[in-house]
Structure formats: structure tokens, C-alpha cells
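[09:14] KT: can someone run the structure on this one? pasting the chain below
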Amino acid sequence: RGGILLHAVGLFAVLFGTWIVLSGHFTPFLLIAGAICAALTVYITLRMDALDRRRDTLGPLWRLPVYWLWLAGQILIWSLIVSRKVLAPRLDIDPVLERVPCTQNSVLWRVLYANSITLTPGTVSTDLQDGEIEVHALTRAAMEDLKTGAMDSRVSATEGYKTPAEDTP
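[09:31] RB: done, C-alpha cells below
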């Protein structure tokens, strides 16, 4: 029971801290409202018995900014590619809908991978189940880029179970 209480206090601290950081105002009314909302959220979470059941780990947090920088680079590259295709005199697209494997160990990291696909211009994740993500790609090149597994292995490396080099033959 002590572990659940510790998690509840931690959840309250994270929620209330996020409230304060995002609000930027320190009036008594807003601080009390934030504390009440955070406490209510923790209470509902405890009543649902969902606090200690699902605990996906974030792994070493230093890996997330490294991944985000790489993802930002991919977003920039594919923004330029998609912009060139859209602005070309002849619309040169070849839409495709296929499934790509995702090798992450937890649902949290699979969702991060699916969201990364959607953030990358020219691709949209449409379904996530059974270790696969259904992806709609604007071009075959975008789909082939996903099928190389570079993004999948980067997310898995960020999760902490593999390095990008492990997936290369």
C-alpha cells in the first residue's frame, strides 16, 4: 500500500508542477484550483485502480532529447520533400497504405513510434495493433523509408532495449 501512496504523491507532484509551469500565474486562486484538479485526478486514478497496474518506463530520460533532435531532422527533411512534390507542376504522388512492424516492448513506446510516423510529413499512422502499424504514405519512397526500420530502431533504442546499430545487417 505504501508503494501506491508514493506513486500517488508523485503523480500529484507531476500534475501540479505541470499546472504551475503551463499556467505561469501564481495567484492563490489558480494555485488552489491547480491543486484541486491535480488531487481530483489522482483520486480518480486511484478509484479506477489504474495507478499501479500499468507502469511503462521511460528508460533513461537523456535518450528522449536525442531522439527528438533526430525526429526534428526527419520532419525537416520530409517537409522539404513533400513541399517539392506539392509545388511541382505535375503532382508526382503515389499513395500507398501498408503495415510496418513495430518492435517496441511496451504500448507507450509503440504509440510514440506511431505518433512519430504521423508527425513526419507525408505519412500518417492509421492503426496500431498486433505489433504492426498501418501507415498511409503519400509516396512509395516515404513507405520504403519507413520499411528500412530506421525510425523503428531509433524508438527502440530510445526505449532502452536496442541500439540503432543492432538492426543493421
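[09:33] KT: thanks! DSSP finds six helices and three strands in the chain.
[09:34] RB: yep, looked fine to me
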